[in-house]
Write a structure and sequence with these properties.
The chain is of the alpha/beta class and 247 residues long. It has one domain: Rossmann fold (3-Layer(aba) Sandwich), CATH 3.40.50. It has seven helices and ten strands. Strands 6-7-8-3-9-10 form a six-stranded mixed β-sheet, sandwiched between helices. Bound molecules: adenosine-5'-triphosphate and magnesium ion (MG). Magnesium ion (MG) binds next to α1. The site of adenosine-5'-triphosphate has 11 residues, from β1 and α1.
């Protein structure tokens, strides 16, 4: 993938003096349905501090995934200002956004989103191939990440041969392989039993603490939410910032 010379942000270690990784100011988002525009996010302003962990909670349909997709540069807000590490993202071209996303953000989804035809190693290596890194080098890095999430013995298994918890570990390794500044997780434990969910939560919090990677996680589980530093509660597209441990 081509790297635009204007995009200098490359990994979590840049700009250590700036504690705000993300600043949103007056973000609104509208969807068009049946020819009419519906506002889903209303004037959202917040800061995500580097190295902290955030639970994103709220009722179904309140706008959590919409906000997560905007934070992850998967969707453009209809209005407002979005700064990532001081960069004005709304001024970026689609190619610049894709490059920034690939370099700075790792995603973990409820349904794992692994490619069924690839084994664990090649699933994890994929983001590095998109960056133009050689297959050999990408597989080496992928292998290290799989070891780290406890799947050193299962690297050559395809997703169908892994349990739900193991698939989510592969997805977490894939999110981490590019050394992102930010991990965005949309209900990562939603398809797992409570014991496996707690293990995945332990893993995400260990990575947050040990690597300093910022974590934003959508969850409906208040017990899991309380384990994160902060809680952003979404209510009908408005944000309430709470301390998760007192939610
Ligand atoms: N692509 C879309 N087109 C039109 N409306 C959408 C689209 N995506 C989401 N919406 C609407 O926006 C609102 C917020 O949806 P969103 O998916 O962000 O909710 P959520 O809080 O993640 O819900 P859940 O907990 O069920 O995942 C909902 O009313 C939804 O129907
Ligand atoms: Mg959702």
């Amino acid at each position: 993938m081509s790297v635009n010379a204007q995009v200098t942000y490359s990994n979590r270690h840049l700009a250590p003096g700036n504690s705000d990784l993300i600043v949103l100011q007056g973000i609104c988002h509208d969807y068009r349905m049946a020819g009419a525009s519906h506002r889903v996010l209303h004037n959202v302003s917040l800061a995500i501090v580097r190295g902290r962990s955030y639970a994103l909670t709220g009722a179904s349909g309140s706008g959590k995934s919409t906000l997560l997709n905007i934070l992850g540069l998967l969707d453009c807000p209809s209005a407002g200002r979005f700064q990532l590490d001081g960069l004005d993202v709304q001024a970026f071209t689609p190619a610049q956004r894709a490059d920034l996303r690939n370099r700075c953000i790792g995603f973990v989804f409820q349904s794992f989103n692994l490619l069924p035809q690839l084994n664990a190693l090649d699933n994890v290596a994929l983001p590095l191939l998109y960056r133009g890194i050689s297959r050999t080098q990408a597989r080496l890095s992928a292998g290290r990440q799989l070891q780290r999430v406890g799947l050193g013995e299962r690297m050559l298994n395809r997703p169908a041969d892994l349990s739900g918890g193991q698939r989510q570990r592969v997805a977490i390794a894939r999110a981490l392989v590019g050394e992102p500044a930010l991990i965005l997780a949309d209900e990562p434990t939603g398809n797992l039993d409570s014991g496996t969910a707690a293990d995945i939560m332990d893993l995400l919090l260990t990575l947050n603490r040990d690597d300093g990677v910022t974590l934003v996680m959508v969850t409906h589980d208040t017990c899991l939410a309380r384990r994160l530093d902060h809680c952003l509660h979404v209510q009908d597209g408005h944000i309430l910032l709470r301390d998760a441990r007192h939610a």
